[in-house]
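Record pair follows.
FIRST:
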Amino acid sequence: MNHPPVMPFNETEFALALMLLLLAPLAIAGVALINTGLGRSRSAAQSLLGALVIIAVSVIAFAVIGSAFAASSMNADHVIHLVGKPWNWMGRGPLLLSDLAASSGRSQLVTLFELFAASFAAIVPWGSGADRFRLAAATATTALLSVFVFPLLAHWIWGGGWLAQLGLNFSLGAGFLDAGGAATIHLLGGLSALAVIWIVGPRKGKFPREGLSTAMPGHNAVHVLFGCLLASLGWMAWNMAGALLWLSAAPATLVMTAINTLLSATAALAATFIVTRVRFGKPDASLCANGWLAGLVTSSACAALVTPLQALFTGLIAGIATPLLVELFELALSIDDPSGAISVHGAAGLWGLAAAGIFAPQPGQFLAQLIGIATLLGLIFPSIYLLFWMLNRVVPFRVDADGERLGMDLHELGGGAYPEFVVHRDESYR
């Protein structure tokens, strides 16, 4: 079976897709608010301002350069022939979106979707570097992701590239499927978060001795939980828009996509609530929020492809795994990830992509999904880490010790988010 054919939009479909895309940024806003709440109070303003700056840099970088590499293209210069098959590895479009006005309505919607997606992927590692990741370094990593890494991945998956052509060339289902961005946004963001964490290291005092971890709870659970509600509306819109754009779904099927998104999130929350209740004696608010987000991330890959029962199952697995993975990464691997992005976006995105292949009716779809996952883990992640490692030599990622002690708000912005309240320092700094 070939990749779902790209059909031109009629006026009704165009208006529906545009409305959904205008709601989709609520998912980004929700995650930005969650990241802020999970960080320390003395870094709250830097966290939320940083999200806005990252969005701005990503949008500009992708519009000016990255969109050219992400564009759909069958240009012979960018097709490699191996084993008698064409491997389309890079798009070739104009810079500065100079042909946008003359493009079809669907092409313009695709560009808007990708602008949002590039921004979303860049925000994910920002939360993982909370309380010690410099804003200047974050803007530099955002530019790299939006100019080079995200556009190539978007072309391979959404722009008719070699991953999308696995069905046509090798009869592997419909090719690699990622309608809601589980790979291009969330797994990419989770892998970028891991690279950032490895480079910046843990917050001071997080791991005082080998085998021990100091609890550093987020400063505002209300922000975290409200962010989950805000993100949910954007996520349902995002998944429905992705189904229209990348799967050529009929508008009548979109309600099921929204229902599956909600079912995946609620099942994940219920599972995390039970796991943390059993594990700690009481449910943990921040981990439950992470579970809810993990269910949403899982739905990004498969909400438009599964039944409601399957959506419940995929969310349940994500909700069970998330708190266990957060604990494993922190205690066993000494990974300091305040937002839980590696588990929430990385692991849950990977599981959603695999689930899309497991439950797909087309033969070979699971293998196509595995090839895409292997590409991200074996090619994209090493490339990201190498790029970030070299960039760190030019623009240091980590703030100096005095800046971390004062807090990122005072150090980078000259003022705190809560000027009327006393912000207490950690014991490790006294």
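SECOND:
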Amino acid sequence: MTTTSKQELLVGGVSIAPGKRKQIEIPVAKLFDYTEMTIPVEVIRGKEDGPTLFVSAAIHGDEINGVETIKRLLARKKTLARIKGTLIAVPIVNVFGFNRNIRYLPDRRDLNRCFPGSDLGSLAGQLAHIFMSEVVTKCTHGIDLHTAAIHRNNLPQIRACLNDSETERLAMAFGVPVVIDSNIRDGSLRQAAADNGIPMLLFEGGEALRYDEKVINSSLRGILSVMQAIGMIAGKGVSLSQQKKEAFIAKSSYWVRAPHSGSLRVSKQIGGRVKKNELLGVLSDPFGGGRVEVRARSTGIIIGIVTLPLVSSGDALFHIATFEDAKEVGDRVEEFDGFIEN
């Protein structure tokens, strides 16, 4: 599908003509007090033909880095005034969770396990159905912005199904050092997009309910780089020199879990390179006794880490990605500054 100057584009019942920019509120449902809940959307159509890209955030309501990223993307008025095709920006998909500072819907469902949804389903299913029908299926490409779950921190990374050549091309263009070749989960937005033939990237970075400037800037720079790669914007006026550096595809990844309950003192940080059997942290009881060492199973890069030091047996502590050359990846992560030049 390609947006052309002769096609009418309707989002939430609102028509957006070529060369126009509109903010739209798509009705979803009402709260107990009959307050109307709506998905905020901004549509920017270029005067020239081109692809249609959606950029979304806060599918999990506590993942707010992406909300700020989209704000900053929309503030680049000169760049967006010259786009070819259409940008559909959705800063908050899960408006219910966002307003409560929680990950889920009021019924505790995970929206990212409810796609493509149904107009007769649960609240999560209805929300997924509206987002799919009003936004996703009208696009040729997509980028969905996430952070780690509560009490975890993620290294800026792209997750994508790389058996699709266009998806792989966009993943490498995004420009973060680490790309995870990730299987599609049932009920996820990525699965629903793939079923509709839409190449889509999932960006992960930072913590829930916290802004992280490096993460926000790296995701913004990545979005602009993808827009260049698909021909939506030209390079003029957008400095993306860091994006030209190589990204690395992980062979696999694994979680190191707590072998014992206790308080955790970490020895390694996010983005750090670890060797097989290297010490990652130490668990101990409130008196400092009962020490249990936590070690890496194999060499790799820490792409996710727990931030709450009080853990129970079996809790996920460190997410480690493995590569052909972990040292080279580690060097790339160290030099990655994440920032975009204005």
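COMMENT: Residues 1-5 have pLDDT under 50 and may be disordered.
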